[in-house]
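Journal club prep — side note

Before the paper discussion, L.F. wants everyone to see what a predicted structure for a comparable chain looks like in token form. Sequence:
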Amino acid sequence: MAVLFIIMAVLFWGFSFISTKVVLSQIPPISIALFRQIIATITLIILLSLTRTQLNVEKKDAGYIVLASLFGIVMYFVLENTGLQYTTASNASMIVASLPIFTLFAEALLYKLKVTRGMILCLLLSTIGVALVVTVDGRLDLSSARLLGNLLVMGAIISWVIYSILNRRISVHYPSLSLTALQSAASIALYIPLVIPEMRRWPAPSEITLTVFANLLFLGVFCSGLAYVFYIYSARRLGLTVVSAFLNLIPVVTVIFGYLLLHETLSWLQLLGITLIMIALYQLNRLVKRAPA
């Protein structure tokens, strides 16, 4: 069951980049993030009720919860969704795939995590891979809209690293499901001022196609709701190292569906970048597994 759940989570998250591209055809990027979190919050509340998980919050943690929500949900999805307007789903997923490397680097700087030569090599290898992925047809075109999109997705990664650092302080005090529900609910209020300028671009409900609505529902219920629960269930039973290996398949799912459904293409340099990132992630997983606790 745990293996089945982590495979489902990988499929959901891999396809989320495709769904976001589809929804962007009718709904502005920040509005997508808001609607996704509203749907996700409703889903998480239902899960909290079914599991009878408590939502008690200590006053000293309230600020950290809101701040983590700002970086990990609001800024992350604002930057990622906006970036997806200009770059391909495949590019975005490959850039996001390098996140574990940069998180490791941040932990080494802030928490004096012991970093070996092998880990540094993985960091350098993945950085080269990301640099190749963000190129436009094999070159660094500073005027290209795709480069702008790639850089925005890189900004989303930085936001997530900050979120991970903030969450590290409070995650040990709350169940994962309740913490996610609290941060998801907080993000709705934080999104409102950002969404106001986009409201004039909202389509009328009757104009929203069934395809766009179905993809938005998928993003909220499955990608921001159920997939997270599946991930927690699998991580507890298989271990973080095993589930991390599965998560490395997310960009593979995105690239395959991006090619089949959106007719996206990759240059040979970007394919080389993908290969370098995957090698770095695989090797990093092995090094972390061998490292003493």
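L.F.'s comment for the group: The mean pLDDT is 81. Keep this in mind when we get to the figures.
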